[in-house]
Design the sequence.
C-alpha cells in the first residue's frame, strides 16, 4: 500500500501541473505605465488614459482599479476585454496642494501577475 501511495503522489502532481500549465491566461500589454502631466494648475482636474491590449489567450477582467488618494479618480472597463482587444484605464487628478506630486493607480485583474501599478506625476502651480 505504501508503494502505491509513493507512486500515485508524484503522478498526481505531474498530471495537475500539466493541466494548469495549459490553462489560458490574460495578459496586459500597456502602451505606457507612467504619465507626466508636467506643470498643471491647482484646482483644475487633468486626465490621462493608460491604454492597453489583452495579449493573452483568455478574456481580461479588471475587478478593481483605484487611486492612491481621494484626489485621483479612476475609470476602467467593466466588461471583459477579449484576447487581442484593447481598452484603457482613465485617471483624473485634481490637485488641492501646490508642489510636486507622485500618485499611483492600482489595477486588480485576472491577468498574469494580478496587480499592476500605474503612475502619474507632475508639478502643481497656482
Sequence:
Amino acid at each position: 500500500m505504501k508503494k502505491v501511495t509513493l507512486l500515485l503522489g508524484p503522478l498526481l502532481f505531474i498530471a495537475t501541473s500539466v493541466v494548469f500549465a495549459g490553462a489560458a491566461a490574460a495578459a496586459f500589454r500597456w502602451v505606457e505605465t507612467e504619465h507626466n502631466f508636467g506643470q498643471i494648475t491647482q484646482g483644475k482636474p487633468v486626465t490621462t488614459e493608460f491604454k492597453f491590449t489583452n495579449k493573452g489567450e483568455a478574456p481580461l477582467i479588471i475587478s478593481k482599479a483605484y487611486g492612491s488618494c481621494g484626489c485621483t479618480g479612476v475609470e476602467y472597463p467593466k466588461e471583459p476585454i477579449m484576447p487581442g482587444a484593447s481598452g484603457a484605464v482613465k485617471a483624473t487628478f485634481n490637485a488641492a496642494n501646490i508642489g510636486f506630486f507622485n500618485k499611483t493607480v492600482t489595477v486588480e485583474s485576472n491577468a498574469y501577475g494580478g496587480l499592476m501599478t500605474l503612475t502619474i506625476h507632475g508639478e502643481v502651480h497656482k
Summary: The helical segments are 2-21. Confidence is low (pLDDT under 50) at residues 4-22. The CA atoms of residues 27 and 55 lie 5 Å apart. Residues 24-125 form a domain with the Immunoglobulin-like fold (CATH 2.60.40.10).
